[in-house]
Amino acid sequence: MENQVAAQLTLPILDPGRLQELARQVRLDIVEMLYRSGSGHLGGSLSAADLLVALFFAEMRRQADNPCWPHRDRFILSKGHGAPALYAVLSRLGYFPREELATLRRFGSMLQGHPDSSCTPGVEIPTGSLGQGLSIANGLALAARLNRLNSRIFVLLGDGESQEGQIWEAAMSAAHYGLDNIMAIVDRNRLQIDGRTSEVMSLEPLAPKWQAFGWHTLEVDGHDIPQILEALKSCRGVTGKPSVIIAHTVKGKGVSVFEDKAKYHGVAPNDEEYQQALKELGAA
Amino acid sequence: MSLFFKVAKYLAREKPLSAKESTRVEYGKTLAKLGEEYPDIVVLDADLSGSTQTKHFAQVFKDRFFNMGIAEQDLMGTAAGLALGGKIPFASTFAMFATGRAWEQIRQTIAYGNLNVKIVASHGGVTVGEDGGSHQALEDLALMRILPNMVVLVPADGPETRAMTRWAAAYQGPVYMRTGRLALPVIYDDSYRFELGRGSVLRLGGDVTLMGLGVMVHACLEAADLLAGAGIAARVVNLSCLKPLDWELVVACARETGAVVTAEEHMVAGALGSAVSEILSEHYPVPVKRIGLRDTFGISGKPELLLKHFGLTAADVAAAARQVIARK
User: Fold this and answer.
1) What is the SS3 assignment for B8?
2) Please, are residues B328 and B237 in contact by the beta-carbon 8 Å criterion?
3) Is residue B177 domain-shared with residue B206, that is, in the same domain?
4) A2, A93, B199, B260 — which has fewest CB within 10 A?
């Protein structure tokens, strides 16, 4: 059975240079999509680009031509407003044609403002209302255990999102049920709509919180792809408890004018910003 | 026509059984039986497995029962994930917390995602009794009825609870079912089969239709007896499938009897009274009177006293029937 599974796997890309190049292209996709749609969440999509590329291209077991493959690893974008980053990655993996990216947020588009599984291949479940993805991931992890599947469940959380109480209910449940097939990543970009997380509602000490909840806890630079890969790899062997990687990121990463500014949480670039972004991201 | 079928079947019944059954108890027993037939059924509770009666399943199928602790939002999210992973989750807690505390989780994930989650919530209505207003869900049906994809059920007796629970396990999609604490007289026999979107006529009559839900179906039946003594022939209908509602039956009853009373252990806004009024105002307006709670919270007390206090007795239904007949 496992041999058969291995034969069907889409091979991972492990070369950091290639992954970095993919992340650059994903960032360009994000800027292009938002510029065209005139709205969307820029900052949190750009901060998550390296994490999503590392996960989807290097870590997760999947079949590009079969999004419903029962043995696949699952991914839940709990911070659903990061949808543009997820759509860019899924399109580059061949889940749907790349031309669809130009329709983001438009009437009749398969790419809704926040992820909707009924519209978009590769999206597992609707998200967008914050705080709910980890509970869903726990349910998937319990189902995988009952079904004797080796699938792992990956979930990307926002740091601001972690102000939702349900995140901590779910953190308790995952540890209580010893869900070592859960791999959570926190996009710790330190900003939320109204400003710095430290000013709006403090999250620190964040890593000790997860540790105290019974999680195997790591911290990485969320833009350093070798570090991300190493952390993901080291979590594979953890048994009896769930793992979380707190990935320190910069909101709006990749374009100087957007970086570390709360104002770019939920706006599209204007003409000038768009041109600047293309230049900085090395568009041909 | 199904109306005729169901009437005929009910009228062919022997005298009503004297035994009483509580809907939550019958749910618990049925769930434990279904556990053997459906290896994919899993059950989740939020520290109320004794009250909701999921304990029977938990005792037999230990590895398929998940107590999520006092955390209803996580309860619903986890149930959603289990459904996504191919399981058939039944998630139970009190109706207030299931639909109130976790409404948004139900809305965003279970209903929006059209997931195969069965939410079976006990302690609906004022007949919760002594626990008082905080624990008496009077809004749950409205909160669930407004959601796309959601099926909303309120069984009126033991056989109907067993039939609905069994139906829900086989149905693919989200379902909300409200159970209660009170032991209720048995209406149906065990051959009763639940049909989605169908109500059933329990008593024939041409002067007025009494449309009931849950506990209040019994008040409607008693009210029909009271009215019969005064020469009024009341039709009694159980609209246990609140969503999708049997609008053909509702319109047929309005057309044939010319007056309608709805009766529910719930706010008059948002559930049965609203649903029937919406249909009739669009398709066949007749005088309607809604029996239910009006812009108030519950209070502590014995269930029977509370039903009387809030105007939810057979006498109240009969009085309403006279009013709508007078307005014809």
Assistant:
1) helix
2) no
3) no
4) A2
Angle between helices A225-236 and A16-37 (to 10 degrees): 110
Same domain, B211 and B180: no
Q: Which of residues 88-127 of B touch A (CB under 8 A)?
A: 89, 104-105, 108-109, 112-114
Are residues B212 and B152 both part of a single domain?
Answer: no
- Calculate the CA B204 to chain-centre distance: 22
B7 in a structural domain = no
Whether B223 and B96 share a structural domain: no
Distance CA B154, CA B164 (A): 9
B74 to A166: CB separation less than 8 angstroms, yes or no: yes
**Is residue B289 included in any domain, yes or no?**
yes
Residues in chain B closer than 8 A to A124 (CB atoms)? 84
Report the length, in residues, of chain A: 284
Q: Which amino acid is at B288?
A: V
Say what the pLDDT of residue B2 is: 44
User: In sequence order, what are the residues at sequence separation of 6 or more whose Cβ sits closer than 8 angstroms to the Cβ of residue B84?
Assistant: A124, A125, A136, A139, A140, A143, B113, B115
Q: What share of chain B is helix, strand, coil (3-state, %, to 5)?
A: 45, 20, 35
Q: What residues make up the domain containing B259?
A: 195-326
B236 and B163, same domain (yes or no) = no
CA distances to B28, B46, B88 from B166, in Å = 12, 22, 12
Written as one string, the DSSP assignment of B275-325 is HHHHHHHHH----EEEEEE-S-----S-HHHHHHHTT-SHHHHHHHHHHHH
Could you give the ipTM of this predicted complex? 0.94
pLDDT digits (tens, 9 = 90+) for B261-280: 999 999 999 999 999 999 99
DSSP A226-280: HHHHHHHHHHHT--SS-EEEEEE--TTTTSTTTTT-GGGSS----HHHHHHHHHH
Tokens found for residue A9: 């796997």
Could you tell me the CATH number of the domain that includes residue B246? 3.40.50.920
What domain count does chain B have?
2
Q: Determine contact: A177 vs chain B, CB below 8 A.
A: yes
| Amino acid (one-letter) located at A198 | S
The CATH code of the domain that includes B116 is: 3.40.50.970
Which of B153, B185, B217 is the C-terminal boundary of a domain?
B185
Same domain membership, residue B209 and residue B123: no
Picking from B150, B185, B220, the residue at the C-terminal end of a domain is B185
Tokens for A38? 């005139």
B14 is a domain residue: no
- For the annotated catalytic residues of B, the residue numbers are 72
For B74-126, how does the pLDDT look when each residue is reduced to its tens digit (9 = 90+)?
999 999 999 999 999 999 999 999 999 999 999 999 999 999 999 999 999 99
Asked whether residue B176 falls in the same domain as residue B203, the answer is: no
pLDDT score for B1:
38
Cβ contact B170:B194 at 8 Å: no
Instruction: Report chain B's mean pLDDT, rounded to a whole number.
Output: 95
**Nearest of B83, B80, B87, B90 to residue B52 by alpha carbon:** B90
CATH number of the A2-280 domain: 3.40.50.970
Judged by a CB distance cut-off of 8 A, whether residue B269 touches chain A is: no
Contact B85 A139 (CB under 8 A): yes
CB A180 within 8 A of CB A243: yes
Q: Are residues B169 and B35 in the same domain?
A: yes
- Which of B47, B65, B74 is the best mutation test for A, with the most CBs of A within 10 A? B74
Q: Is A22 on the interface with B (CB under 8 A)?
A: no
Q: Would you say residue B64 lies in a domain?
A: yes
Strand A195-196 with A191-192, pairing: antiparallel
